[in-house]
Amino acid sequence: MKKFDLKGSIVAIVTPFKDNGEIDVDAFDQLIDWHLESGTNGLVVCGTTGETPALTGDEDAFLIERAVKKVAGRIPVIAGTGSNSTQECIKYTRKAEAIGVDAVLVVGPYYNKPTEKGMYMHFATVAEAVDVPIILYNVPGRTGSSISVDNAIKLANAFENIVGIKEASGDLSLFTELIARRPDNFLVYSGDDFLAASANVLGADGCISVIANVVPQQFAQLMNASLTGNVAELNTVFYKYRRLMDLMFIESNPIPVKTALAEMGKVNEVFRAPMCSMEENTKTALIEELKKLNII
Predict the structure, then answer these.
(1) Known catalytic residues?
(2) Which CATH code of 1.10.10.10, 3.20.20.70, 3.90.1150.10, 3.40.50.720 fits the domain covering 8-230?
(3) What DSSP string runs through the chain?
(4) 129-154, pLDDT tens digit by residue?
(5) What's the catalysed reaction (predicted)?
(6) 284 marked ligand binding residue
């Protein structure tokens, strides 16, 4: 198994589309170049922010391979390979492993609502089937069920290739319990931009971020300040971008973040159904904040 010890700002990169709905490869490449120049520490491709539920399996594989080749080892590349079918999850994870990703991000099975036993069996079965490092992904607001702290710690202790968790429940107390109980070298990432700096001060390892798509250099600065205990810098950066963090979730992710990138000229304002363009009032609020911050 590859050694995996990534900390800091990890962008959950968007998937740009052309006006005809096809993947915009040039825009995707340019986004990756921008992150490499801006100090982003890691890249998640084919996550929620990448509109993966609306991508085909071939498109997933194409984006993962494109990212691995484009990054060329300069920062870690993590592929989202989760599914509500354990066997499908294994298939996606093996494909990403063969492409050469540094780790995979595996969301808790959605819709099925497995029991505690079923949740453990899902991740245990996947971990036994592959060697690639696995990051658990707890996002109950999307999946309808939770990866409990007990299960996360039990899995971390049982499987060497389960190396971390993205905790996106929005509950800071869960971060503290995970950090207090985790085994050595088990990474705890925030899946919530707003809580990430606070979680890092308490001992977390960084954030798999949405807002890093829009302000990659500044979010990397925030993560570094919070990881090194520079509270003055942390407060300066956090309060400057606090409102923008909120606006990234004023509608379902990734609608606001892609809209912001479109306003910045980075991508087209094109979504895969059932994602759609923003309502005028929320879009106006987002644009006003982008202008206030001199982003556009």
Answers:
(1) 137, 166
(2) 3.20.20.70
(3) -------EEEEE----B-TTSSB-HHHHHHHHHHHHHHT--EEEESSGGGTGGGS-HHHHHHHHHHHHHHHTTSS-EEEE---SSHHHHHHHHHHHHHHT-SEEEEEPPTTT---HHHHHHHHHHHHHH--S-EEEEE-HHHHSS---HHHHHHHHHH-TTEEEEEE-SS-HHHHHHHHHHPPTT-EEEES-HHHHHHHHHTT--EEEESGGGT-HHHHHHHHHHHHHT-HHHHHHHHHHHHHHHHHTTSSSTTHHHHHHHHHTTSS-S---TT--PPPHHHHHHHHHHHHHTT--
(4) 999 999 999 999 989 999 999 999 99
(5) L-aspartate 4-semialdehyde + pyruvate = (2S,4S)-4-hydroxy-2,3,4,5-tetrahydrodipicolinate + H2O + H(+)
(6) no
